[in-house]
């Protein structure tokens, strides 16, 4: 489930360094037309300082992402403070798809933030060598306490998770 917020005054924003944004944008550009993915490292759950690309090994990378298992495991076990997950939607808006929500249980509990980028005019970007315009949507991953079957994503682990949209603030490192 996605909780959309018209106003974010009650929700803590996520802060992303401009350098991490540049790294994320560059990786997204070189992955076109496929979905890009990676992790976000930070000094705290709300402060994302660095983007680390992870290879998308999905069988259908035009519309899905799957983190390379060895890269993903190495990053998780490498001692870095992994705080979030990122992926792009090159041909759709930057909102979680049903597959994104279904996969949420595989990632939730490992980190607390989730960023999705939409790409403005990806076809023209490729044909004319232009830089893509990214629209980032940011979310907090929340453990869902609702008992209503219509309001949660179930997972075999027994935990349920939802996404709460929040404001993203770019800042200097």
UniProtKB/TrEMBL annotation:
**Keywords for this protein:** Hydrolase, Metal-binding, Metalloprotease, Protease, Zinc
Q: Which residues form the JAB domain?
A: 19-119
Q: Answer yes or no on keyword Protein transport.
A: no
Output the GO biological process annotations, alphabetical, semicolon-separated: proteolysis
Q: Does the keyword Metal-binding apply?
A: yes
Which PANTHER family does this chain map to?
Answer: CYSO-CYSTEINE PEPTIDASE (PTHR34858:SF1)
- What Gene Ontology molecular-function terms does this entry list? metalloexopeptidase activity; zinc ion binding
The residue ranges crossing the membrane are none
Q: What is this protein called?
A: JAB domain-containing protein
Among the Pfam families in the record, one is Prok-JAB
């Amino acid at each position: 489930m996605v909780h959309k917020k018209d106003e974010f005054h009650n929700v803590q924003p996520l802060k992303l360094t401009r350098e991490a944004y540049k790294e994320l944008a560059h990786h997204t550009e070189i992955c076109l037309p496929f979905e890009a993915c990676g992790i976000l490292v930070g000094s705290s759950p709300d402060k994302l300082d660095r983007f680390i690309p992870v290879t998308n090994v999905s069988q259908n990378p035009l519309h899905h992402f799957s983190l390379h298992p060895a890269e993903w495991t190495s990053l998780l076990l490498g001692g870095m403070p992994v705080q979030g997950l990122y992926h792009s939607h090159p041909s759709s808006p930057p909102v979680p798809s049903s597959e994104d929500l279904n996969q949420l249980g595989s990632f939730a509990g490992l980190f607390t933030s989730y960023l999705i980028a939409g790409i403005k005019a990806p076809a023209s970007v490729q044909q004319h060598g232009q830089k893509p315009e990214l629209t980032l949507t940011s979310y907090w991953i929340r453990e869902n306490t609702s008992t209503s079957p219509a309001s949660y994503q179930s997972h075999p682990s027994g935990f349920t998770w939802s996404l709460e949209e929040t404001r993203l603030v770019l800042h200097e490192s």
